[in-house]
Write a structure and sequence with these properties.
The complex is a heterodimer of chains A (about 280) and B (about 260).
Chain A (H helix, E strand, L loop, with lengths): L9 H26 L12 H6 L25 H38 L2 H16 L6 H8 L3 H25 L3 H9 L4 H12 L1 H24 L6 H10 L3 H29 L5
Helix pairs in contact in A: 3-6, 3-9, 3-10, 4-6, 5-6, 6-9, 7-8, 9-10, 9-11, 10-11
Chain B lengths: L1 E14 L2 E14 L3 E5 L6 H9 L6 E6 L2 E2 L7 E4 L11 H5 L1 H5 L4 H14 L15 H14 L4 E5 L7 H18 L2 E6 L2 H7 L2 E6 L2 E7 L14 H13 L13
Parallel strand pairs in B: 3-8, 3-9, 6-7, 7-8
Antiparallel strand pairs in B: 1-2, 1-4, 4-5, 9-10
The chains are: A mainly alpha (about 280), B alpha/beta (about 260).
Chain lengths: ~280, ~260
């Protein structure tokens, strides 16, 4: 199984470039059309040059430091401060994502392997888990905000829960789907239950788990953004909320582009690491 | 002492359509070092019998003993080569071959010596670090054979192991298997539905039909058995007899004249 934006052929790269050019052209044409009709066109869809020009305005989100003042303390709007603001926001959101995914992996994969060890419990766990999986997990966000406040802790726990449920289901399914012939072969060769689990189940689930992991990773970016949108005081989501509040679509596009690039990069890196970990797969 | 003793073995399965009797009061005694081939048409119960001997399924009635001990679950003293490809894809060839020794807690250095010995015996020394995905179907079967022999069982159960292979590969694997059998002196129970395969390999052929033993024949031909056997009149008679038992004898000659 493969997942992500891993470009395997030049053919795929060409299509991706073509799609990118198409998107930019459509954007620019749409912006021109809106500019001719709307009263405040930049609040609907600003042109590409206008959007790129808003880069220095992102300085407003720089809290100050590294010798560069925050704009509310009299600092100027500069491209450098804009980049710093984006980097700072990305770092904070990224940190929440990493901690959340670590928690999700521990809960989902670790928990799945524990539950999966006993077939009876594994089968018993399927129904409630499938029910949980059918719920829109993002809708549980207000509950986490209520319990833990608009804090990093709340965001991390929310990601850990949402992505954890996804990973738990993926792990249990993968354990269930290990071909019986491998387990029988290990047993007739004298492997104990623990050895079967360690040497057959754990490596055997990796190809199937890879798909679930990639989904959880993409999902956790959305969860991090959502958690920041409802009140945390920093991160890319907070920047986006402030831009939204003042209808600064140009800033939103820039922050959104960084967000998408980060999400795509993590999936790409994950894809490469998974390729290496499962190099035995046919 | 018998390598295997089966008494009154009955296995029934409950399916959606009712209860199916896969084996019906089977009696079988196999002495040590014998090469026994179980033959029969599809659904005759030969794989069920093999799985019961392996301890992978429990009898409904009757008893199975191996080397005097009751069979009540899988045991490394009873090795199995399955019909399907069971080489672990996430382990390199050498790790696959050494798996049974690892399960027994044999130290790595000692394990490596045995692994090398069997890799050489099956002609895969150069592939010791390869992943199974890099091997052909025939080579993976060699890995499975080396894995089974390296674990050093006293009884080796083989369930149509070469069924999916081409004629040339199969013939080569017959030679390899017989060489290993003669070298190690293990008892082998080999399931097939191929009469020629049975004649090439067996000391004794047990014919199963509808869950029961319907024939038990000693194969008197000297080894090594070459292609000359195809012209031997006794072999031709035995082949015809077996085909008859499988319900296939003289089918062509029975066709009505045009």
């Amino acid at each position: 199984m493969t997942f992500g934006t891993h470009l395997r052929t030049r053919h795929e790269a060409r299509w991706l470039m073509l799609a990118g050019v198409g998107l930019i052209a459509t954007w620019e044409v749409a912006a021109l059309l809106i500019a001719g009709q709307a009263v405040r066109p930049n609040s609907i869809l600003p042109s590409i040059p206008h959007t790129l020009g808003a880069f220095s305005e992102l300085s407003d989100y720089w809290p100050g430091g590294l010798g560069i003042k925050a704009t509310q303390d009299g600092g100027r709007q500069t491209v450098v401060a804009g980049i710093l603001a984006l980097g700072y926001g990305a770092l904070i959101t990224g940190m929440r994502l990493v901690l959340g995914m670590a928690l999700a992996t521990a809960l989902g994969v670790g928990g799945g392997l524990l539950i999966g060890y006993v077939p009876a419990i594994r089968r018993f766990a399927f129904s409630p888990l499938n029910l949980l999986g059918a719920l829109p997990l993002i809708a549980t966000l207000p509950l986490f905000a209520f319990w833990f406040g608009a804090t990093t802790q709340g965001a991390v726990l929310f990601i850990g829960f949402g992505a954890g449920i996804t990973l738990l289901r993926a792990t249990l399914n993968a354990v269930e789907n290990i071909p019986r012939r491998y387990i029988n072969n290990a047993r007739v060769l004298g492997a104990s239950s623990w050895m079967v689990y360690r040497t057959i189940i754990v490596p055997g689930i990796l190809p199937e788990l890879r798909g679930g992991m990639a989904i959880a990773l993409t999902f956790s970016w959305s969860m991090a953004l959502a958690a920041e949108l409802i009140g945390i005081q920093d991160g890319l989501g907070r920047m986006m909320l402030l831009a939204l509040r003042f209808s600064e679509v140009d800033r939103m596009i820039l922050i959104g582009a960084v967000f998408v690039a980060l999400a795509a990069t993590t999936v790409l890196v994950f894809d490469r690491l998974a390729d290496r970990a499962i190099k035995w797969e046919e | 002492m018998s390598a295997v003793n089966v008494t009154g073995l009955t296995v029934r399965f409950t399916t959606e359509t009712g209860v199916t009797t896969a084996l019906d009061h089977v009696e079988l005694d196999i002495p040590s070092r014998e090469f026994v081939v179980l033959i029969g048409p599809s659904g005759c119960g030969k794989s069920t019998l093999l799985n019961a001997l392996a301890g992978l399924l429990s009898p409904t009635e009757g008893t199975i003993t191996s080397a005097g001990e009751p069979v009540d679950g899988p045991d490394p003293r009873r090795g199995v080569v399955f019909q399907q490809d069971t080489t672990f894809p996430w382990m390199r060839v050498a790790d696959n071959v050494g798996y049974g020794l690892r399960a027994r807690g044999v130290p790595a250095a000692e394990r490596n010596v045995v692994v090398e010995e069997y890799l050489e015996a099956v002609g895969l020394s150069d592939q010791r670090h390869a992943w199974p995905k890099e091997l052909s179907g025939g080579m993976r079967k060699r890995v499975a054979i080396a894995t089974a022999f390296a674990a050093d069982p006293t009884l080796l159960l083989m369930d149509e192991p070469f069924g999916s292979l081409d004629f040339v590969t199969r013939t080569r694997l017959h030679d390899l298997l017989l060489a290993l059998w003669q070298r190690t002196g293990k008892t082998i129970v080999f399931v097939t539905h191929d009469v020629d395969e049975a004649l090439a390999l067996a000391d004794r052929i047990v014919v199963l039909s509808q869950g029961a033993v319907v024939d038990d024949i000693d194969v008197p031909f000297a080894r090594p058995r070459t292609d000359e056997l195809r012209r031997d009149s006794a072999a031709i008679d035995l082949r015809r007899h077996l085909l008859d038992r499988l319900g296939l004898a003289d089918q062509r000659t029975d066709l009505p004249a045009a």
